[in-house]
Design goal:
The structure is a homodimer.
Chain A: E1 11-15, H1 19-30, E2 38-39, H2 43-46, E3 49-50, E4 53-54, E5 59-65, E6 70-76, H3 82-90, E7 93-101, H4 104-113, E8 118-124, E9 127-132, E10 141-147
Parallel strand pairs in A: 1-6, 7-10
Antiparallel strand pairs in A: 1-7, 2-5, 3-4, 3-8, 5-6, 8-9, 9-10
């Protein structure tokens, strides 16, 4: 039994060294306005955990809405994180594909059964995310996005 | 002016070391049948060019149809290729995002204007593909898929 929720890729995200350069190139290529850059919040509000430990890792983000998914650019800025780690180990590239789920516990349960755990997790206004440590089993990191009240 | 054609991500592809293991894990996670594995044709029919030179590089492929795009798994098998190169330099991971275009020349012209060239190209029955050398400008390799008569 697979998860009925993992049907559509909601986002894909590229880790870059220089988000201003990358967003300008993507905007030119797609013929769209240059989107604003935001920054992840501090650990006090994200409760970010990277490889089992609280971390101050943060990132600059920007988003391009394509017709069937959202393309995200991520530039790590200080502190240990999956983004920083990916950049150091693999260089600039596509960091993850994201699925949006209604039932986080069910999805995490299914992943656990398959031996897939959490690489990083955190919260943002209205929701949260889990990155999976699935590079050796699925070939890629997945992000599970969920809403919370 | 961006390309009006680059609006939807048609495919995303993961380069893996062991396609049988990866497809079995993905099928379990998604709760779908294990898809068949195919292999790219020989250079005589693909006319594959990698970094300006004809190459015998080949790959095993399989495809999962998600609701909004196709997830592709790629295992390089011998001969120089962008897939083999990616695996050696970056490890298993998401190799590219693909756009389907009607007018290949227009898209390649737009990319050229931006200083983006071809990393690899080849043909298959009914169409062809171009991988761009855009890792430093866009943070990721793009695939341009096109039909031909």
């Amino acid at each position: 039994m697979g998860s009925e929720e993992l049907r559509a890729v909601a986002q894909m995200a590229i880790v870059v060294k220089d988000i201003e350069k990358a967003r300008s190139n993507w905007a030119e290529l797609l013929g769209v306005e240059v989107p604003p850059i935001s920054e992840t919040e501090t650990r006090e509000s994200t409760h970010m955990i990277f490889r089992g430990k609280p971390s101050n890792g943060r990132a600059k983000l920007c988003f391009f809405k394509l017709s069937n998914l959202v393309l995200e650019l991520i530039q790590p800025v200080g502190g240990p994180s999956t983004w920083q780690n990916f950049l150091e180990e693999s260089g600039e590239g596509i960091h993850h594909l994201a699925f949006r789920v209604e039932n986080l516990d069910e999805t995490l349960g299914k992943l656990r059964e398959m031996g897939i755990g959490m690489e990083q997790r955190g919260e943002f206004k209205g929701g949260g995310y889990v990155y999976t440590d699935s590079r050796s089993s699925l070939g890629a990191i997945m992000e599970i996005l969920y809403h919370k009240e």
